[in-house]
Amino acid sequence: MLYFVGLGLGDAKDITVKGLEIIRQCSRVYLEAYTSILTVGKEALEEYYGRELILADRDMVEQQADEILKGADSSTTHSDLVLRALNAGIQYRVIHNASIMNAVGCCGLQLYNFGETVSIVFWTDTWRPESFYDKIKKNRDMGLHTLCLLDIKVKEQSMENLMRGRKIYEPPRYMTVSQAAEQLLEIVHNRRERGEELAMTEDTVCVGLARVGAEDQSICSGTLQKLASCDLGAPLHSLIISGHLHPLEVDMLKLFSGAEGLKTLKMTDSSTYVS
Amino acid sequence: MLYFVGLGLGDAKDITVKGLEIIRQCSRVYLEAYTSILTVGKEALEEYYGRELILADRDMVEQQADEILKGADSSTTHSDLVLRALNAGIQYRVIHNASIMNAVGCCGLQLYNFGETVSIVFWTDTWRPESFYDKIKKNRDMGLHTLCLLDIKVKEQSMENLMRGRKIYEPPRYMTVSQAAEQLLEIVHNRRERGEELAMTEDTVCVGLARVGAEDQSICSGTLQKLASCDLGAPLHSLIISGHLHPLEVDMLKLFSGAEGLKTLKMTDSSTYVS
């Protein structure tokens, strides 16, 4: 049997009782470590679970999937693994847990008012994709919020090391809310220069979230301009671009903004605010 | 301190270790019982948690919020309660867990390819709203999947009992995938009659899900027409209307369809299927 066990977002105790029992009974346990970050670290999890964990990074999951399936146990989350497992006659089961996709609801924005989720990637000097902005525009046009998942660079090789075939990796990088906001501000600036109708401006109300579910979770709401200069501390960070806001959502966001944070909001009718 | 503890979707052991510890330490524990259904029942939860639970239905949460806050502990999930608590000087904390909003990913459709979530309500003879169809249309136009949350009627009074002030409640009703599909088929039929451009047809590939996360979870994929006659058993049910499908998503959906289930899918390019 191949189990996919969600670990939760905060610390070791965010695993479900069912998930913990399964981990303790399995013959081999892999720890998926490339779509997220281990806030508490592998050692802390090993101690709490009472089990040795095999770190499964992207290389391993993509290239050594068959090895993971020999057995078969896993803590990673891939349709590909499911299909390979079933193909090999191995049954699977998912033990669900919180993910950033539903835990962002803690900021007070209603989950069913979110549109398509977007990913914001680190720009380089030569690669500055803007496709996420166009998706945000579509969501905003429909009054919907946009959850932006921010880029994670783990086990990346420099171009030089890659070309020389040296398995030397750069330090991991996690995009901050501030960095994401800076990139968005630049896109807004560029589009304004080109005379385009804007999806959002410096004044659009956004929400920055860091370490959701952890003891030191940090949430900040305010204009995009404000979030570009906020420091929410260690990763992981996520950013939400608001759509239309219900008064109850506004009241919740006020908990995470300074006195001036939401002053760009305008009421369009008794149940709707926009920015 | 007011805690909001997610209970998970399957059985009593789907609570997180952290959540269980908190429930066992709190002076009063409420069980929110109107946005979902207790697959295992209050008694089973009480036995597993080792605590007496106070059933909090909609009436109680809306009308007796202050009573809940006297203390203050809770297992419900409302911005309103958060705001009341903070207003009364009571701190709060959220213990996250899986919800249908992220657990639907178990069918193999990618969560970031979902658009706005819609609710499908029970039609009556005189009230047949179609607004959810228009939202599905917007999502489909952008190639996005739509999660449809299906209506729950709990503690509803008949019109007669309501008018006579009698607190007699109808048996609870939970919309099935089949019922939701029937309503959608009727809307498609009506719109076709009116000559409208259709958002979806009888042939659109959908996914029906029942009791997600529970031992007897049931998933069925196929055309809307097929889902209208499927029986997924006991509640809760959810329905997904697919948008554009990635080949890996199609491979996953094949796990939940019969041999003929996905024959209406057409490949538009090497990475996209539509129906």
UniProtKB/TrEMBL annotation, chains A, B:
One Pfam family named in its UniProt record: TP_methylase
Q: Name one GO molecular function term.
A: diphthine methyl ester synthase activity
Q: What class of enzyme is it?
A: transferase
Q: In which pathway does it act?
A: Protein modification; peptidyl-diphthamide biosynthesis
Record-linked InterPro entries: 4pyrrol_Mease (IPR000878), 4pyrrol_Methylase_sf (IPR035996), 4pyrrole_Mease_sub1 (IPR014777), 4pyrrole_Mease_sub2 (IPR014776), Dphthn_synthase (IPR004551)
Write the Enzyme Commission number(s) for this entry. 2.1.1.314
Per the record, the GO terms for biological process are: methylation; protein histidyl modification to diphthamide
Q: Which residues form the Tetrapyrrole methylase domain?
A: 1-227
Which UniProt key words apply to this protein?
Answer: Methyltransferase, S-adenosyl-L-methionine, Transferase
User: PANTHER family, from UniProt?
Assistant: DIPHTHINE METHYL ESTER SYNTHASE (PTHR10882:SF0), DIPHTHINE SYNTHASE (PTHR10882)
Role played? S-adenosyl-L-methionine-dependent methyltransferase that catalyzes four methylations of the modified target histidine residue in translation elongation factor 2 (EF-2), to form an intermediate called diphthine methyl ester. The four successive methylation reactions represent the second step of diphthamide biosynthesis.
> What name does this protein carry?
diphthine methyl ester synthase
Upper taxonomic classification of the species?
Eukaryota, Metazoa, Chordata, Craniata, Vertebrata
